[in-house]
Amino acid sequence: MSEQNSATGTSFPAAGASTGPFGDLIGLKLTEVGADRVAGEWLVTPQLHQPFGIVNGGVYCTVIETLASVGGAVWFGDRGTVVGVNNNTDFLRAVTEGRLRGVATPVHRGRTQQIWQVVITDESDRMVARGQVRLQNLDPR
């Protein structure tokens, strides 16, 4: 379940598709994929905890980068590929269990760069983390 980028030969994941080996490792599943919004969710397990029993901040960074990159790639489409060049993540609430959801939306989309904002919420719709990713748009030449 993916779309093919004819300029680069790469595939964009569709809702329900894998987010790649690392995304699969943390259990991230895409629930919505579009050029203006990407969403995903995952279940918190003890394997995602840091030593104090809460979700490791790297999990949030991974989800934020993944959702922003998928959205940026879908929007940029056949013009080339995108790569993350900055990920700034704020951790707002400790989580030990439950299902988390991330939603990415664009802040700026330009000729050479994009900025995407991602908000992660828990099952009670409380914000637990938020982040911003700057993507570089790469021309296939």
From TrEMBL:
Residues in Thioesterase domain copies: 52-128
InterPro entries: HotDog_dom_sf (IPR029069), PAAI_dom (IPR003736), Thioestr_dom (IPR006683)
Cellular component GO terms, alphabetical: cytosol
A GO molecular-function annotation: 1,4-dihydroxy-2-naphthoyl-CoA thioesterase activity
UniProt KW Hydrolase keyword: yes
Keywords for this protein: Hydrolase
Family (UniProt): Belongs to the thioesterase PaaI family.
Record's protein name: PaaI family thioesterase
Species the sequence originates in: Nocardia stercoris
